[in-house]
Specification:
single chain; mainly alpha; three-stranded antiparallel sheet; two-stranded antiparallel sheet; binds zinc ion
């Protein structure tokens, strides 16, 4: 890091800290989630400057507004609506790590971070729109109907929402100087990895069943507190783990797209 960049990083830490504190006050984040968001935000803004701030805003503001405008159906899950540190790092960790590439190779970090944030945005929009649309999702691999909110379940309206979520980040990347190629790459890769997330969720994510409620769940302990039986998938691979793989994949493909197209 060149010495003249120090004020940029201090400013980044202040801005990201203020945003994380506001999100915590608005009950969008748990306290550890706010700390994780502060670290991710500081890294993105410190490495990418105002473009990083714009990309973060394009991910965070519309997806939060969307979840507040559309009423949630049914009971909230055990984690509630507040994002914890694991969720924040799964969504934003690869983008922050990718942004650091910008310090060595201008352009590379911006392309990779934009693609990773576009994937996180697409997944968030798809889930928010899909779960609240009232449509019965279908399993992405075998087409059978599944419960709303199930990993690997997709709806047309949720997928269209996801495309808009990727576009929100991609268009912002283009608008803040990354160029239209970077914006298009982020939109395409974000949408593709939204489906990649569903495929990984359907094929590999751990599935459990609560013996007390006779209900399927994604967590080893059901929201009623009963330990659930392992049904299938990789026992250690949680929904956060699947999200992390998808944003990592998008960041790697964003870097590849930069190498191929810029
Ligand atoms: Zn239960």
């Amino acid at each position: 890091m060149p010495p003249q960049a120090l004020p940029v990083w201090l400013l980044a830490a202040l801005v990201a800290g203020a945003a994380a504190a506001l999100a915590w006050r608005a009950r969008s984040l748990t306290p550890p989630g706010a700390v994780a968001a502060w670290l991710v935000g500081t890294t993105l803004v410190g490495a990418l400057g105002p473009a990083g701030l714009a990309l973060l805003a394009a991910f965070f503001i519309p997806s939060n507004l969307l979840s507040r405008l559309l009423p949630p159906p049914g009971p909230p899950d055990a984690k509630g609506d507040r994002r914890d540190a694991a969720q924040v790092l799964a969504n934003g960790g690869p983008a922050a790590a990718a942004a650091l590439l910008e310090l060595r190779t201008p352009g590379l970090g911006l392309w990779a971070a934009a693609a990773a944030l576009a994937a996180a945005s697409a997944d968030t929009w798809a889930t928010t729109v899909g779960v609240r649309s009232g449509r019965r999702p279908r399993h992405i691999l075998d087409g059978t109907p599944v419960q709303p909110g199930t990993s690997g379940g997709v709806t047309w309206v949720g997928s269209a929402g996801g495309l808009l979520g990727a576009l929100a980040v991609g268009a912002t990347a283009a608008a803040v100087g990354a160029g239209w190629r970077a914006g298009l790459a982020a939109t395409i890769l974000g949408t593709a990895w939204m489906f990649g997330d569903s495929v990984l969720g359907a094929a590999l994510q751990a599935r459990f069943r609560c013996p007390a409620c006779a209900e399927d769940t994604e967590r080893p302990v059901h929201r009623c507190g009963t330990p659930a039986a392992h049904l299938g998938g990789w026992r250690w691979l949680t929904n956060d783990g699947v999200n992390l793989l998808a944003t990592l994949g998008a960041a790697a493909d964003g870097a590849l797209a930069w190498w191929l197209c810029s």
